[in-house]
Amino acid sequence: MEDIAQRRSARIRTQSKTVVIADATSDDVIRKRKRISKEVTIDDDDFVSPKAKKKKSEKSQDDVDETSNKVKKSKRPKPEPVYVIPDVEKRETQFRGRLGYACLNTVLRNKKPASESVFCSRTCRIDSIKKNGMDWVKELGRKNVQDLITMIQWNEDNKIRFLPEAGALAEKYGHRLTSHPGQFTQLGSPKPAVVESSIRELEYHCQMLELMGVGKDGVTILHGGGVYDDKPAAIERIKTTIRDVLPKNVRDRLVLENDELCYNAEDLLPICEELDVPLVFDYHHDALNPSSIPPATIIEARQRDLCPEPRPGAITLMERRAHADRCERLPDEVELEDVAIDVDLMIEAKDKEQAVLHLYRIYGLEEVKVESLRPPNENQTKETKGRKSNKKAKGSKAKANDEDSGGLSEV
């Protein structure tokens, strides 16, 4: 112990000499300073226990982290980008109905930082529920509802009053709200378990709309589904399920929509007329899977119309299924005297609310806020982002599984 104290004292004296020598300028003094610095190898840390050294190192790292955090916090936020909005070709129309969009608002969804992004499509897997618990799931639902209120207010500020899924605020502003269950909802499936799960899915959508206080014009839109190698038999199963199995409150909200692959408007109209179920007419799907009935005649039975367009340059059926970013014109049928006054047009386009604002500008339907506009994408792809055809499926069993997808059998 005494030896250690002497060594430490020597180190202190040496440091003192080094400091004094460092103030000198002669060559001899400089050489002495170099010699002393080579000879001195003892440091204060040599007298500190390993445990104390570790604490000192951790404290030093904490100081670095704190300094780093201060630097991050002091960063200035990125300025809002400046958008160049191109002019549009003006058109005239008699249309005085409502235009709407589906699913999400691109302006709110793309807000930066990501923590400020607004959307109401948070979801989860069963494994996540087991891991995080139901309180976590409920919080996801609360966030969806909170963001939905923000979306409705944005739509009202921008005069868009036809969108899916909302509540009292939408009723206050006179917005129309609808829902669209997924492609796994198959009322005509030959598998009883799939039909039962499909009914549960429709009951959920109906309950959701009822809990939000949405009126009867808040419908649930559904495609015909698969044909299962026998379309007449599938149609009979669809009719039986709607007529004999669906609860009345679910049936009262049900609306059928023509699709681009299996059921065109001509296939569905007899079902709608027989069971008193409204039809949603999809212009895009009718162009891909046309019926012999003119669109103007079909619209007379409409509850709501869809107005998507295929992407520019699309040739094959799979390419033409992909929606364009925006629509450049309204359907000719809305110019008819009995239609133009009150029809609702859902604009199914990739640019969502921007597609609606684009038509507002073209036809002068509403005044548009410049700050709400975003420029169109100059390079549209021809890809579909949804379901794909399964060319590798082998045999009838694989085909049946692909059509049913088996999704709702586990819901």
TrEMBL record:
<keyword id="KW-0228">DNA excision</keyword>
<feature type="region of interest" description="Disordered">
    <location>
        <begin position="371"/>
        <end position="411"/>
    </location>
</feature>
<dbReference type="GO" id="GO:0005739">
    <property type="term" value="C:mitochondrion"/>
</dbReference>
<protein>
    <submittedName>
        <fullName>UV-endonuclease UvdE</fullName>
    </submittedName>
</protein>
<dbReference type="GO" id="GO:0016787">
    <property type="term" value="F:hydrolase activity"/>
</dbReference>
<dbReference type="InterPro" id="IPR036237">
    <property type="entry name" value="Xyl_isomerase-like_sf"/>
</dbReference>
<dbReference type="GO" id="GO:0004519">
    <property type="term" value="F:endonuclease activity"/>
</dbReference>
<keyword id="KW-0378">Hydrolase</keyword>
<keyword id="KW-0227">DNA damage</keyword>
<feature type="region of interest" description="Disordered">
    <location>
        <begin position="41"/>
        <end position="80"/>
    </location>
</feature>
<feature type="compositionally biased region" description="Basic residues">
    <location>
        <begin position="387"/>
        <end position="397"/>
    </location>
</feature>
<keyword id="KW-0234">DNA repair</keyword>
<dbReference type="GO" id="GO:0043504">
    <property type="term" value="P:mitochondrial DNA repair"/>
</dbReference>
<keyword id="KW-0255">Endonuclease</keyword>
<dbReference type="GO" id="GO:0009411">
    <property type="term" value="P:response to UV"/>
</dbReference>
<dbReference type="GO" id="GO:0005634">
    <property type="term" value="C:nucleus"/>
</dbReference>
<keyword id="KW-0540">Nuclease</keyword>
<dbReference type="GO" id="GO:0006289">
    <property type="term" value="P:nucleotide-excision repair"/>
</dbReference>
<dbReference type="InterPro" id="IPR004601">
    <property type="entry name" value="UvdE"/>
</dbReference>
<dbReference type="Pfam" id="PF03851">
    <property type="entry name" value="UvdE"/>
</dbReference>
